[in-house]
Design brief:
Largest sheet: none
Order of helices and strands: HHHHHHHHHH
Oligomer: single chain
Distance between the termini: 47 Å
Low-confidence stretches: none
Mean pLDDT: 82
Radius of gyration: 18 Å
Number of strands: 0
Number of domains: 1
Structural class: mainly alpha
Shape: globular
Helix content: over 70%
């Protein structure tokens, strides 16, 4: 678990550093630097708690709780900081949150730890991470992500040193973890560009629909069974995107 997080963050940091240099982005300073450090600490805590929860707890509890909190917290912050969007967008946000719950549900056996504590920590930290990076000044994208990734890598490294947790990876999975680091970086960069160009609530709820893609890919590539809950959730996600898109475009 820690090896996956550590390597993926280092890969993301290296890529964002190169892109920031190519784009001649300034180095964050002052409040922006502080926000990057806070976001890095929150992101590192959130992803580690999520992986821990999935490892020791029940996926049927950990996944939906984390997903909903990660969506609701930035949406609520967006309402407070930027005001309410149009009625159609609000309908889309509501549909999206229900969709996240449905597509995150998995077959789960009774017994064992629930992972509730880890899910609450993960969802809260990831949600606050979204709020924090949304406050970073326009123009700081990849340079900010470089700092954030560096903080996350240091945080995970400290946990490994203090706890003595295993972190070495099987060489066969290293390419997959590198791919995870690249995709994670692209996702965060897209989110940051989205909130700088539009509204935090809209960008947050659209990005929170990632479980829909996971379910579809699992069905196509791994031939996993798609339940009725999943199908309804996918349909609601499509409706949510349409509502948010049309509602945002309306004058």
């Amino acid at each position: 678990m820690f090896g996956v997080v550590l390597l993926s963050q280092l890969v993301g940091m290296a890529l964002t550093l190169v892109i920031a240099i190519v784009r001649s982005e300034p180095v964050p300073g002052g409040v922006d630097l502080l926000l990057c450090v806070i976001a890095g600490a929150l992101g590192g805590t959130g992803i580690t708690a999520l992986y821990r929860g999935l490892a020791v707890g029940r996926m049927g509890i950990v996944a939906p709780i984390t997903g909903v909190l990660a969506a609701v917290i930035p949406v609520a912050a967006g309402f407070l900081l930027e005001g309410l969007p149009s009625a159609l967008v609000l309908v889309g946000i509501g549909l999206a949150i229900v969709a996240v719950v449905l597509v995150s549900r998995v077959a789960d056996e009774d017994g064992g730890r629930s992972g509730l504590v880890e899910a609450l920590v993960a969802g809260t930290a990831i949600g606050l991470f979204g709020v924090a990076i949304a406050q970073i000044s326009d123009g700081f994208v990849f340079s900010s992500l470089t700092v954030i990734r560096g903080v996350q890598a240091v945080l995970v490294g400290l946990v490994v040193v203090v706890t003595g947790a295993a972190w070495r990876l099987d060489r066969r999975v290293v390419p997959l973890v590198v791919a995870v680091g690249i995709l994670d970086m692209l996702g965060n960069a897209s989110f940051l560009l989205g909130v700088q160009a539009g509204a935090l609530a809209i960008a947050s709820v659209l990005s929170s629909l990632y479980p829909v893609t996971t379910v579809i890919l699992a069905a196509v590539l791994l031939h996993e069974r798609v339940t009725r809950h999943h199908l309804v959730g996918i349909g609601l996600a499509a409706a949510a995107i349409a509502c948010i898109g049309f509602g945002s475009a309306a004058p």
